[in-house]
Design goal:
alpha/beta, six-stranded mixed β-sheet, 6 strands, single chain, 43% helix
């Protein structure tokens, strides 16, 4: 499969107002070209810095090398975004491109010791692996007849965010609420074994990704 990109990306005034105006969002998710392609990427990065005290943040690099500079040039921005985030999901191909010669597991483990409380490394047909400060946990794959893998990573991330929001481990909308959610997330990932709520969230994410692969096109599940 080949892709041809001809894209100009910038946040509209309406989008900026929705992010930074009255009643800011409780949780912000970003990734891929939204945070890699200027001028929009710079706008998003500025918004994330401003929202850090009032919202939780998740990030999926979902790198598109055809649109980017070299891995060496992109590395600094990715590392900055990881440090700003509470939850990060990345594919092993992303990390192999970003840090050639370094095991994706090694990068994920290092990230988990920095800003984010939870880092999830997706491994395609091999499932996924979650990393946090206290350790790691494998998430077994859900076996389905694969028709199309487009959208699988997005489905995984959406399901993971949904379950963590439902559990009160992400979200905010005001300074105290975001601080409380972030503190709860850090406390829950502060042991050598993840609580059951994370196992549920990760397995739900794996199911969502698998079912998306069983359909043609980017056709993820609803709740």
């Amino acid at each position: 499969m080949q892709y041809t990109f001809d894209i100009y990306w910038a946040l509209s005034a309406t989008a900026e107002a929705a992010l930074l105006g009255d009643g800011p969002p409780g949780h912000v998710h970003t990734g891929s070209i939204a945070i890699a392609l200027s001028p929009g990427a710079d706008q998003v990065l500025t918004a994330l810095h401003a929202l850090r005290t009032s919202a939780t943040v998740s990030y999926d690099p979902n790198l598109r090398p055809a649109l980017l500079h070299t891995a060496e040039q992109e590395r600094e921005r990715v590392e900055q975004l990881v440090a700003l985030s509470d939850v990060v999901k990345a594919g092993e191909e992303d990390l192999a491109w970003l840090h050639p010669g370094v095991s994706p597991d090694e990068t994920a483990a290092r990230w988990a010791c920095g800003g984010p409380a939870l880092v999830v490394l997706t491994l395609g047909a091999e499932g996924a692996r979650a990393w946090w400060r206290g350790g790691s946990q494998d998430i077994p794959p859900v076996v389905v007849p694969v028709r199309d893998t487009v959208g699988a990573g997005d489905a995984f991330m959406a399901a993971l965010i949904s379950r963590l929001l439902h559990a009160g481990l992400l979200g905010g909308g005001s300074g105290p609420e975001a601080v409380a959610a972030r503190a709860a997330l850090l406390a829950a990932t502060g042991t050598d074994r993840l609580p059951t709520v994370f196992d549920d969230a990760l397995r739900t994410a794996a199911r969502a990704a698998a079912l998306t692969c069983a359909r043609e096109g980017a056709n993820p599940d609803t709740l």
